Amino acid sequence: MIITSKSTFQTRSLGKDFSTILKKRDIVLLEGQLGGGKTTFVKGLAKGLGYKGEVLSPSYTLVRRYKINKIVINHIDLYRLDKKSLSSIDMEEYLYNENSISIVEWGQKLKPYLDKYLIIKFSFLNMEKRKLVISQKGHNKNKLKNL
Questions:
Q1: Has domain 2-137 been given CATH number 3.40.50.300?
Q2: d(CA 47, CA 53)
Q3: How many angstroms separate the CA atoms of 47 and 71, rounded?
Q4: I want to staple 117 with a disulfide (CB 3.0 to 4.6 A). Which of 20, 27, 47, 133 is the partner?
């Protein structure tokens, strides 16, 4: 599925819409250049799941956790990690917690280790426009049908 976002507002709105298909234990991988809209998308996604606070980039903390009722959103950023560093972090604690949804920026680094995920690739079209390519691996093919 390919979607074009024409603004930051629309990228946030797309994140909110995307949140409607998510369930506990889902893993969403986000790929794209710096400034491509990944964190903006997550802000909308968190709002769509009912989070009322501020969503910040986890670039320096690696993980930010947002609690919403009985669900936790794990917002993870792997930008600064190489393969060796990645293996030293216990990602299973976040990715396979039964009450969480994990959103992973620079998620392509995890692809070889996962059997099931949703993936969104962000590309620049110009200063405001972004192309989002949404796909999945290991889910029922109808998972993305309601977007």
A1: yes
A2: 8
A3: 13
A4: 27
Q: What is the token pair recorded at 110?
A: 């995890």
Angle (CA) 128 74 37, round 5°? 5
- Amino acid 7: pLDDT: 94
- Measured in degrees and rounded to the nearest 5, phi and psi for residue 40 equal -60, -45
Question: What is the Cα–Cα distance from 97 to 92, expressed in whole angstroms?
Answer: 8
pLDDT tens, the chain, 147 aa long:
999 999 999 999 999 999 999 999 999 999 988 877 899 999 999 999 999 988 877 776 678 889 998 899 999 888 766 666 666 566 777 777 889 999 999 888 888 888 999 999 999 888 889 999 999 998 877 788 777
Ordered alpha helix ranges (H), 1-147? 8-19, 38-48, 83-87, 92-95
Query: Is the Cα torsion angle 49, 74, 62, 76 positive or negative in sign?
Result: negative
